[in-house]
């Protein structure tokens, strides 16, 4: 079975071709980092226009690299939310066009479910029940997964997502885009105990909160700059980055450990853009090993937004609808930017 994946939820345009559940034939990603660098963050209007510019050339490149015809495709899977309105619309329109023109079933995919599916690209044989931590620029979610498409959200962010906090602290420290990777790189040169940033503790809830931690790091930077200007001395950027990263990861690990204590699971999966952070991967690997559960995290290229994960999520959703496999049916694909992960 060949699934074409299309992802345009934010600032990366991606198309992928997946054979069956985990054989990635091609996964093309066009980044917009340079276009947004001047503004210090993603500008929705610019993101939409960039998607329009590169999506068709990416699709043409996919055809060239795989030598497929659109008639060979069995399913089109596309991100339909959550994300930036204009950016999502570009991908949805392209998917619906291909679906209608070539009479291919079209499967809408929730972006968070796509991140979860990236774990199965790494290891299709993962056992349920599975605890999954989704950490990205827009999400901090603890999900209990009992089967494909069967989810229970155990915890979520009450304000800033962890990836958003990483990006905003990086901006406060004067680091370039993308903020998260640059903060991690800078943190390697600093002392993680130079500043004591206390992560929020919302016990017994498994929710997250990063607004206060973000503000504390930004204020520490302001004070550091003031002292440096008045008294001289070395920059404290690396120390602040390292201290912030340590505290941010502490909150994630603490909630994961609590969830592993409360819910008997076979597997713990880490996914989302922040899952590319090496320090976080190591901390949560240790937490999983201490709890005696299997640990999985995708390759770093599959942690950030990509179409292969959307194709995988679409594949599993499509197989769960036997009637869709019997005849062509163009999905309505209602445009819902507030789409939530389906919870059973």
Task: Explain what this protein looks like in three dimensions.
The chain is globular. A hairpin with a 3-residue loop joins β2 (12-19) and β3 (23-31). The chain contains 11 helices and 10 strands. The chain folds into 2 domains: 2-116 and 303-325, ATPase, nucleotide binding domain (Nucleotidyltransferase, domain 5, 2-Layer Sandwich); 128-298, Nucleotidyltransferase, domain 5 (2-Layer Sandwich), CATH 3.30.420. α2 (44-66) packs parallel to α3 (85-102). The longest helix is centred in the last third of the chain and has 26 residues, at 237-262. The model is unreliable at 324-344 (pLDDT under 50). The strands form 2 sheets. Strands 3-2-1-4-5 form a 5-stranded mixed sheet, with helices on both faces. A 5-stranded mixed sheet has the order 8-7-6-9-10, sandwiched between helices. The chain has 344 residues and is an alpha/beta fold.
Question: Topology, please?
Answer:
Elements: E1 2-7, E2 12-19, E3 23-31, H1 33-37, H2 44-66, E4 75-81, H3 85-102, E5 106-110, H4 111-122, E6 130-135, E7 140-147, E8 150-155, H5 162-172, H6 179-187, H7 211-231, H8 237-262, E9 267-271, H9 278-291, E10 294-296, H10 300-303, H11 307-319
Parallel strand pairs: 1-4, 4-5, 6-9, 9-10
Antiparallel strand pairs: 1-2, 2-3, 6-7, 7-8
Helix pairs in contact: 2-3, 4-11, 5-6, 5-7, 5-8, 6-8, 7-8, 8-9
